[in-house]
Design brief:
The chain has six helices and seven strands, in the order E-H-H-E-E-E-H-E-H-E-H-H-E. With 162 residues, the chain is an alpha+beta fold. Strands 1-2-3-4-5-7-6 form a seven-stranded mixed β-sheet, sandwiched between helices. The mean pLDDT is 97.
């Protein structure tokens, strides 16, 4: 079942992110990896900055989460993670389809360039990579991430694109 997450879900959201992000360890540049992958204060900042999370709940437990953030010109999909034990069951696809119904705007998704599984997932769901020049512009304008992360990331788009 898909449901909107609340502040009561904060610790579960954080646990899912940090569990699922272990897949990045040894894949993304070492200087971009840290433990925990996402500290609680960063998640709180993201939520305060307008990232609204939706989750897949199974038997009263969140098993996957995905955030959506309105950025005037575009809608961003942010922090999409499925707990390791629940991967490959269609949870990510269902969450993505649900969030896509919440906007009429063009959707942008940023992820690590080395996370080929994530890029493949989004491509299977109708997204395509933007050019490096477009990616650099979009990440600088719509995301608040370090320059090094911009260098090592990609942006995918669905819907109208220039």
């Amino acid at each position: 079942m898909i449901r909107q997450c609340t502040q009561k879900d904060f610790e579960e959201i954080l646990a899912i992110i940090n569990d699922a992000a272990q897949a990045y360890k040894g894949v993304i540049p070492d200087d971009c990896w840290h433990e925990p992958y996402m500290p609680g204060d960063y998640l709180r900042h993201e939520m305060d900055d307008g990232v609204h999370f939706w989750g897949w709940e199974e038997s009263g437990q969140l098993t996957g989460i995905m955030g959506i953030q309105d950025k005037v010109d575009f809608t961003l999909i942010r922090h999409a993670y499925v707990h390791t034990a629940w991967r490959n069951k269609g949870i990510g696809s269902q969450l993505l389809k649900n969030l896509q119904t919440m906007t009429d705007k063009t959707i942008l998704i940023g992820t690590w360039a080395a996370a080929t599984w994530a890029i493949s997932f989004y491509e299977k769901n109708g997204y395509r990579l933007v050019s490096t020049e477009e990616k650099n512009f979009l990440l600088k304008k719509y995301w608040k991430i370090p320059a090094r992360q911009t260098e090592t990331s990609v942006v995918l788009v669905a819907g109208k694109w220039p």
